[in-house]
Design brief:
Helices cover 40% and strands 20% of the residues. By secondary structure, the chain is α/β, with parallel strands linked by helices. The protein has 2 domains: 155 residues, 3-Layer(aba) Sandwich (Rossmann fold); 101 residues, UDP-galactose 4-epimerase, domain 1, CATH 3.90.25. A 7-stranded parallel beta sheet has the order 3-2-1-4-5-6-11, with helices on both faces. The protein has a 3-stranded mixed beta sheet with strand order 7-10-12. The chain has a 3-stranded mixed beta sheet with strand order 8-9-13. Helix 1 links the parallel strand 1 and strand 2. The protein starts with a strand and ends with a helix. The relative contact order is 0.13. This is NmrA-like domain-containing protein.
C-alpha cells in the first residue's frame, strides 16, 4: 500500500495535539512545517519518524505552491495571523498546488484549512466587527467555487471554542478573582438560555485522526464536533456543583455588550463576546462526528472538576 504524505503546518497547542494523534495512523508519513524548526527541536525529538522543514506562510506564493503540491494532505494549525488576507492567500496557493498535482496525474490534494472554530457561514464578519471572520467565510466560498476544478478536496472541522478558553480569566465568563473569599461569578452572553459549543484540544486531535483515516465521509463538506454544548445556565450549575461555593450570576445582555464595545471599540475580546452572544457558535452534540463515531469526549463538567481539583 502506498504511503500517504501529510503536511501539518503549525506546532502550537492545536498542532501539537494533531501531531500526537496523526503519528499513529498507518501507511502515512508526517512532515511538520514551521517557520523556525529549531524552536521545536525538543518536542520533535520524541517523534523520530516525523520530518520537519522550515515553511513560512509569508513566503512567495510560487514557492509555497510547489511545496504543497508534494503532499497528499495539508492540515493547517497555524492559528490566526495578524494579516487577515493570509487565509485567502493560503487557500489560493492550495488551489494552485492542486492544479500542479492534476498536471502530474496525482491524486487530489486534501485540504484542512484553519477553520477550527465557529460556523463562519452564520457569523460572517459580525456586521463588520470581525473582518477576519469575514475572510474565513470567503475561504469557504472560494473552496466551494474552485476546489473541484483545481483538483482539491477540502474538509472544514467546526469545533466551537477550545474548552480551556471558556474558563480563562480574560474571557470573563467564569470569574475566579474572588475565589479565595469563597465566591465565583459566572456570566452569560445574551441570556442564560444561550449556548456555546466547546471542545478539548486533545479531543480535536483524536477526532481529526479518525477523519483523516476516513472513518466518516468528509470530502468537500463541513463537519461538526463538540466536547460539549451547554447553556450558560447549565455552565453556572456545573461550576457550583463541582466547586461547592457560592456562585454569583451576572447577565451580559446584547445591549450591555454593545455598550461595552462602544466605550472601547478596539477591544478585541469585547468584539468576540458580542459575536458569541449571537448565532453560529453552538450546535447539538447529536449532529457531530464524535457522536456518530461513538467517541467519548471531555465535557464541561469533567474539565471543571479537573480545573477546580474536585
Amino acid at each position: 500500500m502506498s504511503t500517504t504524505k501529510i503536511l501539518l503546518l503549525g506546532l502550537g497547542e492545536l498542532g501539537s495535539a494533531f501531531l500526537s494523534h496523526l503519528i499513529t495512523l498507518p501507511f502515512t508519513h508526517l512532515t511538520v512545517g514551521t517557520p523556525n524548526p529549531s524552536k521545536h527541536a525538543s518536542l520533535l525529538a520524541s517523534y523520530p519518524t516525523v520530518s520537519h522543514r522550515a515553511i513560512d506562510l509569508a513566503a512567495p506564493s510560487d514557492s509555497l505552491t510547489k511545496t504543497f503540491a508534494a503532499f497528499d494532505i495539508l492540515i493547517i494549525a497555524t492559528g490566526f495571523s495578524s494579516n487577515i488576507d493570509s487565509v485567502t492567500k493560503l487557500a489560493n496557493e492550495v488551489l494552485e498546488a492542486g492544479k500542479i498535482r492534476q498536471a502530474h496525474r496525482k491524486s487530489k490534494l486534501w485540504f484542512f484549512p484553519w477553520q477550527w472554530g465557529v460556523d463562519y457561514d452564520i457569523t460572517g464578519d459580525a456586521e463588520g466587527k470581525m473582518p477576519l471572520f469575514g475572510k474565513q467565510k470567503a475561504v469557504r466560498d472560494l473552496l466551494r467555487e474552485r476546489a473541484e476544478e483545481s483538483g482539491v478536496d477540502w474538509t472544514i472541522v467546526s469545533t466551537g471554542i477550545f474548552m480551556s478558553f471558556l474558563f480563562e480569566d480574560f474571557w470573563g465568563i467564569v470569574d475566579r478573582s474572588r475565589e479565595d473569599d469563597g465566591r465565583i461569578v459566572v456570566r452569560c452572553l445574551k441570556n442564560w438560555e444561550h449556548k456555546v459549543t466547546v471542545t478539548d484540544v486533545d479531543d480535536i486531535g483524536r477526532v481529526l485522526a479518525k477523519i483523516v483515516a476516513r472513518h466518516v465521509e468528509a470530502n468537500n463538506r463541513i463537519l461538526y464536533i463538540a466536547g460539549d454544548t451547554v447553556s450558560y445556565q447549565e455552565l453556572a450549575d456545573v461550576v457550583g456543583r463541582v466547586n461547592g461555593k457560592e456562585i454569583g450570576r451576572e447577565e451580559w445582555s446584547i445591549p450591555h455588550l454593545e455598550a461595552e464595545l462602544k466605550a472601547d471599540p478596539d477591544n478585541q475580546i469585547k468584539k468576540y463576546r458580542l459575536v458569541f452572544a449571537r448565532d453560529g457558535v453552538w450546535w447539538d452534540k447529536e449532529k457531530t462526528v464524535n457522536h456518530q463515531l461513538g467517541i467519548n469526549m471531555v465535557d464541561v463538567e469533567t474539565h471543571a472538576r479537573k480545573l477546580f481539583g474536585n
